[in-house]
Amino acid sequence: MTTSIAEKVPVTVLTGFLGSGKTTLLNRILTEQHGLRIAVIENEFGEIGIDDALVIDAEEEVFEMNNGCICCTVRGDLIRILGTLMRRKDKFDHILIETTGLADPAPVAQTFFMDDEIGSQLRLDGIITLVDAAHLLQHLDEEKSEGVENEALEQIAFADRIVLNKTDLVDTEQLAEVRRRISEINRLADVHETVQAKVDLGAVLDVGGFDLSRALDLDPAFLEDTEHQHDLTVTSVGIEFAGELDIERLNEWLGELLSAKGVDIFRSKGILAVRGMPERYVFQGVHMLFDGTQGEPWGEAERVNRVVFIGRHLDRAALEAGLRGCLAAPVPAA
Amino acid sequence: MALGPLIGQRPEPLPPDLVDRLRRWVRTCLGLGEEDTVTVTQLTCREAGCAPVETVLAVLTPGAPVHRTIHRPADEVSLADVRSAFATATPVEALRSAP
Questions:
Q1: In angstroms, what separates the C-alpha of B61 from chain A's closest C-alpha?
Q2: Fewer Cβ within 10 Å of end Cβ, chain B: N or C?
Q3: What is this model's ipTM?
Q4: 3-state helix, strand and coil shares in percent for chain B, rounded to the nearest 5
């Protein structure tokens, strides 16, 4: 028997560049009186117990799995550690995974899609990215050799929530610029400004970033176009239009899109109106993997498709044309 | 109107006893111990020529990972399927000595 969503232990992924304040936030989570028993998986220490928490050392083992239809990367060390924690899960209310400053968040997120034991007992609650307001622009603009990823960029792109830390070290103008650059990359993430990582822990530990019932909480700004474009290799593309989609065309288009661009599409989220389906179809994905389910019935509401893609080298016009091409033929008048 | 799942969509997670059984079979076929990480995943596939639901079994041994796809739902996978899928895989002794 699988565990219901409410009973699954939530897992938070804490990521961020070196010096962004991750350790400060982690120490707060470990020492504040929040009443939660938290297990922390991280790369720095050996296994130690701090009050009700357990800190476990992890060594990043990334495996690529390509089975023809789906290509993804997973973290073998996490599968092993989470498996051990699940055997004692009555002792924990929450699991927190801290990644190194140079880690790619994708293998961590995809691990939750690619192991059914983990998927049946744990739920990925959200990816939290800490950002150093004083140094973010420098990290984003850093020239990388061909084929080398800009980790700061990817960590922002993957985030459900961004803690914009050290805001006391920048002036108003610079802060506005930092916020604008973040928004160019990721339109879905909420941004919380902080000093010394003093963010409400509820905003970090209860995000619901991968919760399909919250997949529709899209900020209306997701559709806005970027006015002052930098070298936008990683961007958000929001698409919205009314009408019903044909399931076969949609499957064909999604198959081609994920096969050709799955590596470049970091995250996707949205709601679709599918002909023959009285309910909204809600989905969210990481690269080529995604979860989808039938949500609330449309009832009398207008059937509107709303989708956001976050990724590298996204072609807005092609994405919109492709999705619009899935519209079902008009129903002939009776 | 019944609608099939979309391409790439992950079906509901498998029941733990089914995951345990498949994992045990993989361990048996490759002579693995409890310390070896074995994952079991059921995926929806809509590519032409592919089965609609497939089961991916993976052994994540550092230096020598191996995974196999069996083109049928997890609850229809037999020990013979697993044995056949991993027939060409490296046995555990070689996995452990791999760089």
A1: 8
A2: C
A3: 0.74
A4: 30, 20, 50
Read off the pTM.
0.81
Least confident stretch, A226-230, A261-265, A277-281: A226-230
Task: Examine the domain organization and report whether A311 and A169 are in the same domain.
Answer: no
Where residue A222 falls among pLDDT bands split at 50, 70, 90?
low
Distance from the Cα of B44 to chain A's closest Cα (Å) equals 9
A215 within a domain of the structure (yes/no) = no
In a domain, A331, yes or no: no
Rounded CA-CA distance A322/A316 in Å is 10
Is A180 among the domain residues? yes
Which residues of A are less than 8 Å from B7 in CB distance? 251, 254-255, 258
The closest CB to that of A65, out of B15, B47, B67, belongs to: B67
Count structural domains, chain A: 2
Instruction: Return the CATH number of B16-90, one of 3.40.50, 2.120.10, 3.30.160, 2.60.40.
Output: 3.30.160
Report whether A284 contacts A272 (CB < 8 A).
no
Mean pLDDT confidence for A126-152: 85
- From A152, A180, A210, the end of a domain falls on A210
* Domain end point (choices A210, A239, A254): A210
Compute the distance between CA of residue A238 and CA of residue A251 in angstroms, rounded to an integer: 20
Interface contact A76-B13, CB threshold 8 A: no
Is B45's CB within 8 Å of A289's CB? no
Interval A259-263 mean pLDDT: 85
B65-99 per-position pLDDT tens digit? 888 989 899 999 999 999 999 988 776 666 666 55
Q: What domain range includes position A68?
A: 5-210
Q: Where are the beta strands (DSSP E) in chain B?
A: 38-44, 53-59, 66-70
Domain boundaries, chain B: 16-90
